[in-house]
RNA sequence: GUCCCCAUCGUCUAGACGGCCCAGGACACAGGCCUUUCAAGCCUGAAACGGGGGUUCGAAUCCCCCUGGGGACGCCA
């Protein structure tokens, strides 16, 4: 049985997959999954100059990372279908719905400038619309232009923007085939969307105006139009269309800076779409609740801080095993080798509340693995002092006695010392923290001890003790 | 310049039928609480219906104008 819904994501491989493209893909996937339809991928690589296989690979990888690779085995490449588009174009020509245009780039450019100057809409003046046979006979190169009706209007229904109408008069005779014979975008999309059986075209708002031209083409070719949904653009903080100068815009950049794909997907979904007051959605929930009708009509400003917050939300709830898997590469970058096992999991657990990204976490986690603790000068100066020496020794003694050194046990070891020496927890915790981590900031001290493991904790305490002794035995300060 | 679209806190947004909205949530921000450090968490606060006309007993919600923003104007996609 034929699926009632069939969508596609059609990026052109002229750059990395960016946030906007990712959101378009996401909306397509959510809509399709909800309707148990089919989602296809089409690479629009007809611009041989700018298209690159490298970008195609990047797009595929990014979609995979985001978990949006629901397209099947077959990926359509427009560059391999050139002949098909030409056939459609030629058919239009034979039926008198398209004509040969011999105008040169210079002529067109001059005409455009003149029109702009005259406060008129810049569009093809129609020079060749009724034939220019003298040049035709000369065998000059020509482009094939679509003969746009001069009257009437073209209408279509847009699921997010509502009914749309354009006066045909405003539309120009656009090019179908370039003078080198290659097909142009508007022709290719129409032919492909038809041949691929696309029922819903969900794409960026920047294609909204093109849609009228495409609808005209569908009509001329005698094809039924699919349904359209144009999702609003994503803007930078300056309200300009998001671009490289707004910082990280590629999906890859977010992967590299330690974001979870779940968080990015969640954030992107909420940009332009909402479901009451809900902020956090699992993918399944999105599939269940997403509706194209609920997508807003106005462009949205990308807010990196909110994404960061969401990432932290996910950091706190994603299973440690998964975090470990994603964290390992970042640790490796920092020269830390570890196994994805209980020891790592325990350490991650102590860090997740205070790490917003995997990069932050990888920076934090280093102290657990370091061969030698390096004391921050100010920290050791302030906390590793002779006054605390005996208390630290006592603490070490207490810890040594414990067989299973978990948080609770560590806490008991501390209590004993505090009582014996009349210290407050802070008075002992800070020196211990410096001894174990090298700095004054870390997860809770009991957690650190438990996650670090007994032998390493004892070793570090001993080193701190020796450090204080060495300092104390020097000349008086 | 021409055409199209849009318009609620700094940002993302909630807001079916106009009264439940002197406008709710989230991020960020400020203050407080908690506290072994830093975070986190919790509580509180400041913060918006762009302006002007209508329609109506009553408008953030409907209509018009202005202003502002975005998109498109390629033999790019």
Give a written overview of the molecule.
- The protein has 20 helices and twelve strands.
- The chain has helices at 19-34, 53-66, 82-94, 105-117, 133-137, 185-195, 208-221, 251-256, 261-270, 283-289, 304-317, 320-333, 342-351, 358-369, 377-383, 389-401, 407-421, 425-437, 445-452, 454-472; strands spanning 6-9, 38-43, 75-77, 98-101, 143-146, 153-158, 162-167, 175-177, 200-204, 227-231, 234-235, 300-301.
- By secondary structure, it is mainly alpha-helical.
- The relative contact order is 0.08.
- It binds one RNA strand of 77 nucleotides through helix 4, strand 5, strand 7, strand 8 and helix 6.
Features:
mainly alpha, three-stranded parallel β-sheet, 49% helix, 10% strand
What's the Cα radius of gyration?
A: 32 Å
Q: Shape from CA axes? A: elongated
State the end-to-end distance. Answer: 88 Å
Averaged pLDDT, please?
Answer: 93
Strand content: 5-15%
Short description:
The chain is mostly helical. It has helices spanning 19-34, 53-66, 82-94, 105-117, 133-137, 185-195, 208-221, 251-256, 261-270, 283-289, 304-317, 320-333, 342-351, 358-369, 377-383, 389-401, 407-421, 425-437, 445-452, 454-472; strands at residues 6-9, 38-43, 75-77, 98-101, 143-146, 153-158, 162-167, 175-177, 200-204, 227-231, 234-235, 300-301.
């Amino acid at each position: 049985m034929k699926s009632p819904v069939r969508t596609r994501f059609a990026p052109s491989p002229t750059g990395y997959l960016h946030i906007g493209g990712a959101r378009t893909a996401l909306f397509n996937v959510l809509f399709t999954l909800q309707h148990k339809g089919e989602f296809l991928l089409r690479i629009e690589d007809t611009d041989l100059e700018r298209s690159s296989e490298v970008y195609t690979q990047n797009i595929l990888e990014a979609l995979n990372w985001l978990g949006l690779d629901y397209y099947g085995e077959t990926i359509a490449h427009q560059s391999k279908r050139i002949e098909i588009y030409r056939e459609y174009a030629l058919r239009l020509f034979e039926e008198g719905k398209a004509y040969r245009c011999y105008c040169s780039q210079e002529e067109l450019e001059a005409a455009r400038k003149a029109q702009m100057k005259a406060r008129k809409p810049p569009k093809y003046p129609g020079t060749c619309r009724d034939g220019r046979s003298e040049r035709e006979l000369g065998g000059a190169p020509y482009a094939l232009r679509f003969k746009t009706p001069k009257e009437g209007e073209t209408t279509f229904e847009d699921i997010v923007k509502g009914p749309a109408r354009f006066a045909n008069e405003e539309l120009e005779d656009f090019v179908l085939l370039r003078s080198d014979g290659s097909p142009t975008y508007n022709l290719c999309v129409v032919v492909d969307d038809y041949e691929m059986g696309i029922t819903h075209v969900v794409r960026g708002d920047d294609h909204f105006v093109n849609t009228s031209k495409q609808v005209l083409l569908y009509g001329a070719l005698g094809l039924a139009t699919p349904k359209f949904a144009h999702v609003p653009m994503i803007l930078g903080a300056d309200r300009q269309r998001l671009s490289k100068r707004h910082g990280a815009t590629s999906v890859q950049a977010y992967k590299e800076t330690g974001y979870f794909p779940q968080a990015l997907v969640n954030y992107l979904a909420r940009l332009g779409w909402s479901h009451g007051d809900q902020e956090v959605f699992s993918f399944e929930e999105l599939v269940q609740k997403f509706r194209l009708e609920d997508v807003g009509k106005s462009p949205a400003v990308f807010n990196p801080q909110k994404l960061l917050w969401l990432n932290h939300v996910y950091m706190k709830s994603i299973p440690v095993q998964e975090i470990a898997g994603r964290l390992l590469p970042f640790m490796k970058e920092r020269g830390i080798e570890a196994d994805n096992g209980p020891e790592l999991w325990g350490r991650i657990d102590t860090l997740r509340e205070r790490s917003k990204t995997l990069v932050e976490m990888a920076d934090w986690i280093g102290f657990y693995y370091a061969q030698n603790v390096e004391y921050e000068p100010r920290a050791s100066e302030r906390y590793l002092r002779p006054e605390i020496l005996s208390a630290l020794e006592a603490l070490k003694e207490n810890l040594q006695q414990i067989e299973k050194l978990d948080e609770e046990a560590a806490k008991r070891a501390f209590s004993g010392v505090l009582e014996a020496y009349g210290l407050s927890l802070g008075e002992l915790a800070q020196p211990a923290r410096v001894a174990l981590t090298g700095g004054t900031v870390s997860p809770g001290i009991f957690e650190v001890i438990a996650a670090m493991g007994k032998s390493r904790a004892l070793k570090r305490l001993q080193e701190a003790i020796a450090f204080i002794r060495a300092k104390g035995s020097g000349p008086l300060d």
